[in-house]
Amino acid sequence: MKILSLHSAGHDTGVGYFEDGRLVFAVETERLTRVKHDHRSDIALQHVLSQECVDTDAIDLVAVSTPVRSALLQIPDLDHAMERINAGAPHHRTTCDLLGRRVDCVVVTHELSHAALAAHYAGHEDGTLVLVNEGRGQLTRSSLFRVEEDRLEWIAKDPLPWYGNGFGWTAIGHLLGFGKSPSVAGKVMALGGYGQPDTRIGEQLRAVDPRVMHDLELAERVRAELAQRPEFHPEFETAAHVVATFQELFTEAVHAVLDRHVTRTATGVGPIALGGGCALNIVANSALREAFGRDIAVPPACGDAGHLAGAGIYALTYVLGQRPEPLSVYGNGTGEPRADVLATLDTSGLKAVPYDAPAVARLLADGGVVALTEGAAELGPRALGHRSLLGNPAASGMRKRMSEKLKQREWYRPLGAVMRDERFAELYPAGRPSPYMLFEYQLPEGTAPEARHINGTCRIQTLGTDQPRLHGLLASFEAQTGVPALINTSLNGPGRAIAHTARHVLDDFAHSDVDLFVFDDVMAYRSEPR
């Protein structure tokens, strides 16, 4: 069975291709265009269909999440499909026109596409409770599902208050002057570490008319009213207390709704999975994992970019009754041919030399910054060692250099870190690992100070030997410095999507303060090595 899986409309579009239950190829549109949250799914579709590994003429089924870009797929009964979906149908089976022929098609409700991907990361285990929590879906802003006998049962729609979902994060960002883009929540959340929850602010937020989620005129009037109150002044210190308070309300609301519906077992609670953009909230994720005493399944591409796989997984699992294989997070596009990398370096006047882990570690130990690409990129917004900027977390001023100067981010935003599994186990003997950098940990004083947030936490990626290049680099770096981690942040310049090719990397950083470029088994110094 060959399935084309699309997120065709809205932000963070992309396309995936499954063959016999395996995700063979996928790409997010923004990685091709460098436009963050790009909606132009036709670019991704043409890219996927041009790949040698994609059997275009033999595609059996197209799975597409809502909303649907009708001109792209030409679904003859799309109006009827959307009527059924808006009435509560989880999906609609129909046909579409693709490359001049009629192909079977499954239109998957937005929320079900998110839920299927999250359930997949939980192994589709019976009893799994899935919370899909986002700014806006097809029908809801938050939904609860349960995996029951190979079905995804929709058990609650909008069970969370306005301050418990993505709408609330966007509203708080807008209130504090950050605008309304899909990137707002990530910028705003970091403020919370600089503030403390305030009871007075909490009372005012709880008292907001819950209809704001569905009445945008009312929402704007509420925003204007709150903006006049001194507690909500956008000045940094005040804003930090607002965000800290909102984070507490958000986490409490999510915990409460999960606690009401989670499957109870003799030893605790059953599986829990999170989908939608709010599953990127590492503060809430970490608190939930602690409160329920078990791991929480979160796809690394839990936002709308995940639909490129979620729609196909839903069709395979819950329509066709087939179990897809586990997904590799390193499946966004493909690795770049070595000849193309060498040609890019040559035209940029850079000399390619063989990759040398001890030399890279020595440069990092001396305070250098490394841009690293390897193979296919990561699916989702986290840098996990295949499209990463790396730096020494013990080098004074490194956070400012990497975050503020290179990436030109807000000064208060923290950086994540990558650490080998064995060192993580020594530092956190009872800690659960975080291979996708979706949880936070209290970082011991002095361990990696430039990766430590103001509240003492760090978003850590735990890394196994299945990633030998970065694992070996970490080992070499620690042998030289005694430091058990590296700063790891996404490989993109200001305002751009994460770099996909060597040309993208050099476009962003060839004339910047990056010291060394690593592309799989070759590397090039920006200037003479130190």
From TrEMBL:
Xref: InterPro entries: ATPase_NBD (IPR043129), Carbam_trans_C (IPR031730), Carbam_trans_C_sf (IPR038152), Carbtransf_dom (IPR003696), NodU/CmcH_Carbamoyltrnsfr (IPR051338)
Pfam families referenced in this protein's UniProt entry, alphabetically: Carbam_trans_C, Carbam_trans_N
Protein name: Carbamoyltransferase C-terminal domain-containing protein
Lineage, uppermost ranks: Bacteria, Bacillati, Actinomycetota, Actinomycetes, Kitasatosporales
Family classification: Belongs to the NodU/CmcH family.
Residue ranges occupied by any Carbamoyltransferase domain in the UniProt entry: 2-62, 103-312
Domain Carbamoyltransferase C-terminal: 361-524
The organism of origin for this protein: Streptomyces xiangluensis
Residues annotated as signal peptide: none
PANTHER family reported for this sequence: NODULATION PROTEIN U
